[in-house]
Write a structure and sequence with these properties.
Blueprint: H1 6-11, E1 21-26, H2 41-56, E2 60-65, H3 73-78, H4 83-107, E3 112-116, E4 125-126, H5 129-137, E5 141-145, H6 155-166, E6 170-175, E7 180-181, E8 193-194, E9 196-198, H7 199-205, H8 212-220, E10 225-229, H9 235-241, E11 247-250
Parallel strand pairs: 1-2, 1-6, 2-5, 3-4, 3-5, 6-10, 9-11
Antiparallel strand pairs: 7-8, 10-11
């Protein structure tokens, strides 16, 4: 898969960028910071500074954010709400998170556009693939909100879909831990961390990284996934530069 933007970074005299166009997936819960609910502006600024560092290195950044800090459709369905209704409410929550991140990014000097899969012209642009690619080529960080616009699909799947559509070189999945483990490291101190995995490992081992639909879409399009710790400063830029960050998932044999 081609890696747009890498040549521009090299010709500018800076270090080589391995992944010239990335799709960064951030969970809604990441925006909580230390709060029990909603959006923490301080942590939004922390995220914005990480994205800005990658942007200044010549990386084209697309971004998908979840809505779990405000509303989660699957959880609501478990409590008796219609699943489709809950999912649409969750999509609207991602729009609010996208606007919060847009504000944070623009405050640190990064030109940003928000594109939504559900029409709301007064708030954000409609998602149009060719226009999204043009924004990226012009150096604008582009936030994709409202998921795929359809219920029953997670924001992980939306991230994989948008990554493939825009021709991203890698899907970066930001989490609260430094990679993929064979058990939850927060409750199992002896859990083993993997440096590399194959798509088949993730699907066959039922590792809780991304949902199976997202992983399958990446596998079919040979799109590598890197799972890393968002709380570690500069990890977004480091991952885009090809440094050893987190766990890399691809079609090759693990190292």
């Amino acid at each position: 898969m081609s890696e747009p933007g890498a040549a521009a970074s090299e010709s500018a005299g800076g270090p080589a960028v391995r992944y010239g166009r990335i799709l960064l997936k951030i969970s809604g819960e990441a925006l909580l910071g230390d709060r029990p609910y909603g959006v923490d502006p301080t942590f939004c600024t922390f995220i914005a500074n990480q994205v800005a560092a990658a942007h200044r290195s010549g990386v084209q950044v697309g971004l998908v954010v979840g809505g779990g800090n405000i509303f989660r459709g699957l959880a609501a369905a478990a409590r008796g709400m219609d699943r489709a209704t809950g999912d649409y409410m969750g999509m609207l929550a991602t729009v609010m998170n996208g606007l919060a991140l847009q504000d944070a990014l623009e405050r640190v000097g990064v030109p940003t556009r928000v594109m939504t899969a559900i029409a709301m012209n007064e708030v954000a642009e409609p998602y149009i693939r060719r226009r999204a690619i043009r924004h990226l080529e012009k150096g604008r960080v582009t936030l994709f909100v409202a998921g795929t616009g359809n219920p029953y699909f997670t924001t992980d799947t939306a991230a994989a879909l948008r990554a493939v559509e825009i021709g991203a070189s890698v899907l970066l999945k930001a989490t609260r831990v430094d990679g993929v483990y064979d058990a939850d490291p927060l409750t199992h101190p002896d859990a083993k961390r993997y440096s590399e995995l194959t798509y088949a490992d993730v699907l066959g081992g039922r590792l809780a990284v991304l949902d199976a639909t997202a992983v399958s879409l990446c596998m079919e399009n040979d799109l590598p996934i890197i799972v890393f710790d968002l709380n570690e400063a500069d990890n977004v830029r480091r991952a885009a530069m090809g440094e050893k960050v987190g766990t890399r998932i691809s079609g090759g044999s693990p190292a």
